[in-house]
Amino acid sequence: MQSYQFFVPCALGLEELLAQELSSLGAGDVKPTNSGVTCSGDIELGYRLCLWSRLGSRVLLKLITAEVHDRFGLEKLSSDYPWHDVFNERNTFSVRFNGTSQTLRNTQFSAQVVKDGIVDAFRRTGDKRPTVDAKQADIQIQGYLNKGEVTLYLDLAGAGLHERGYRQAKGAAPIRETLAAAMIMRAGLNGSVVDSDNWPAVIADPTCGSGTLLIEAALMATDRAPGLGRTRWGFSAWRAHRAEIWNRLKEEAETRFDKGRTACNTQFHGVDVDPEVVAAAQQNVAGLGLTDLIKIEEGDFNSPWLMKRYRASASGLIVSNPPYGERLGSPFAAWQFYRKLGAWLQPGIPNWRAAILTPDETMIRAMRLRTDKKYKLNNGGIPVLLAMINLHEPQTQFARPELESLSNRLQKNWKQREKWARNEGVNCFRVYDADIPEFNAAIDFYDGALVIQEYAAPSTIPEAVAEKRWWQVIEAALDGLPIDPAQVYTRQRKRQKGEQQYNRVSDESVVIEVQEYNAKFFVNLTDYLDTGIFLDHRWVRKDIQARSRDKRVLNLFAYTGTASVHAGLGGASEVTTVDMSKTYLNWAKDNFRLNHLTISRHPFIQTDCMQWLATEAAKAVPEQWDVIFIDPPTFSNSKRMDTVFDVQRDHGALLAQAKRLLAPGGLIIFTNNKRGFKLDQTAVAELGFVAEDKTRESIPPDFEKQRAVHVCWYLRHA
After folding, report:
1. 3-state SS assignment for residue 583
2. Which residue pairs, CB below 8 angstroms and at least 24 apart, start in 274-281?
3. pLDDT for the residue 397
4. From the centroid of its chain, how far is CA 449?
5. What CA–CA distances, in Å, run from 214 to 180, 230, 235, 267, 291?
6. E strands along 123-242, which residues?
7. Which domains does the chain have, with CATH numbers?
8. Distances in Å between the alpha carbon of 309 and those of 270, 305, 312, 314?
9. CA 168 to mean position of chain CA atoms
10. Count of CB atoms within 10 A of residue 436's CB?
11. How many helices (H) and strands (E) does the chain have?
12. Tens digits of per-residue pLDDT, 618-643?
């Protein structure tokens, strides 16, 4: 019988397991490669791989390999091959292609070249051109280009081997069947109940979804060939197809399944909280005729009755692909889910083990259980980790000493500041601001929501260390603060230049209202690096409100107009709000409307504040205001500005122009956030100002440990 060479591709991380599987199926010359395994054997082996491989993605039979340098070489290779030996003109065909080179840079183009070559081969012999069918072709050709060599394969399976034929209904984000089988094998179950005596009494999935893990385990236990339920195969139209061999292998597989099902004493049990998903799983099980072995119910894994049932079993294995990411709404909800799962497993179950699929090391840490082994796998192109856990005895959920100081600090801060904020009449405050240098982040509370901002780590800190500490901050916050994980939002802060502070960082647009004394503000928890309110200026805004009765107030570099709102609520006769950003100026107007302040009475001016100041100050009789609030950026090189602004260098000129706009007896409140800022006392005195440093009085308790958070000076006419 003719010998063939085969390539069986697989997901990353499964090569070793797949090589073992192919060897057990009788393959020769088995060699793992990147994302697949090569082997050799006769046509019976090819059929056996199609029928029995639980891990392979496809079974590709090698047709030809040759060195190819350009499209002309690829076309010649394709047109010279005797395609009449593969299929006839009445069959439809399709071509897929992988790999690129300097001259063949587009896989779709290369696939088209191969198609043209195949058509030319038929035309040369006077045959009718075969039809291309991209969806359900009778014959599928796969091309691979690697290091200047092109290999053309016949796809014997015709579709992915993960398509077992039993999935009649799907749950949310079902796990691929090949990965599910790999999880079962990694858990130590490599043969059927007929071949092995290590099958436990129960295999359970407490988050079963559409039941894929349980079904794959049951197919393996009952010695059912994974391809037994498929009706379409890529070799059906192949001219070298040996139907008698294929039919014999199918009959053999059916006999093995009957025997395995009779011998199987393992029970398979799953629960899921979603009734629609449970119904889908039950439908899949019924389609296989395995309802006597696989029972799937609606329920929560945390229910006491479930653990009681498992403890009553002599032995067992928990296999689970818990939901995470979008399936739970946020990565922080996923963290809490894994945390609960770990707490549920912590008491242990005698003679039980667990194989838990996790998106990353973070979720393994969230469970706080010791793992025996961890395997790197791939789920739909996404790297994942399979954690093997011994449940024989209760586990002491290991402590995280590196988080103790952080957790203690967060809980202490929360207890003090939540009570203070409630008494103060505000529902947004800072919980934490890099109090512990290793955990370089800020955490702010906004009426039930939490915003965790990571400061950029110094270049001396390795990226992996910074990433670990970032997740430790999140873990401590989720574990120690009374916050719904679905209401946690994160972002990374870096030094902003020019208009970067105005750039959107997300498109989620989660906007809520917050309360600050008698004022309300819209804050955006997702879209920008700043939420729309500078919490450290809370007491400055409160003082502006107290001073604004019947006064004309000017707010420069106004951002979202929070100080303007306080001035309006304080009874200012007129509030002028100036900012360069249209986005933030519209936001300021929305804040005015939220507080029932009449916009038409108060000017909103979109322009560069420095240019506007210079223009207004140069007037022969400049307009004047009683209270001027100036909170400029530390640095700005916006394209809308003619010059680069640096607050340390330019604040003297800024104050000189502002003085021309200050009414007799008026007050300038000047603040900024530059660390180490020094007011030019000489220049201020020469301008005729009396300057009073109000920094300490302007910083509220939730920022008192960050003395450098801002500076604040009150300037009056001498």
Report:
1. helix
2. 274/171, 274/172, 274/298, 277/171, 277/172, 277/209, 277/210, 279/169, 280/168, 280/169, 280/170, 280/171, 280/210, 280/211, 281/169, 281/171, 281/208, 281/209, 281/210, 281/211, 281/214
3. 63
4. 20
5. 9, 19, 30, 10, 12
6. 139-146, 149-155, 202-205
7. 4-155 (3.30.2130.30), 177-223+263-390 (3.40.50.150), 402-494 (3.30.750.80), 526-717 (3.40.50.150)
8. 12, 6, 5, 11
9. 29
10. 15
11. 20, 29
12. 999 999 999 999 999 988 876 555 67
Q: What is the DSSP string of 662-690?
A: EEEEEEEEEEE--TT----HHHHHHTTEE
- CA dist., res. 18 & res. 37, Å (int): 7
Q: Can you tell me the distance from the alpha carbon of 565 to that of 520, in angstroms, rounded to the nearest whole number?
A: 9
Q: Which of 552, 555, 530, 531 is nearest to 541 (CA)?
A: 555
> Is residue 554 within 8 Å of residue 648, measured between CB atoms?
no
The span from the CA of 489 to the CA of 493, in Å, is 13
Closest CA to 431 of 457, 402, 409: 409
DSSP secondary structure code for residue 456 in this structure: P
String of DSSP letters for 88-112? -TTS-EEEEEE---SS---HHHHHH
CB contact at 8 A, 604 and 532: no
Q: What is the pLDDT of residues 132-187, one digit of tens each?
A: 998 899 999 999 999 999 999 999 999 999 999 888 766 556 799 999 999 999 99
Token reading at 286: 């019924």
Q: Which of 327, 333, 389 is nearest to 364 (CA)?
A: 389
pTM: 0.73
User: SS3 for 45?
Assistant: helix
DSSP structure class, residue 426: B
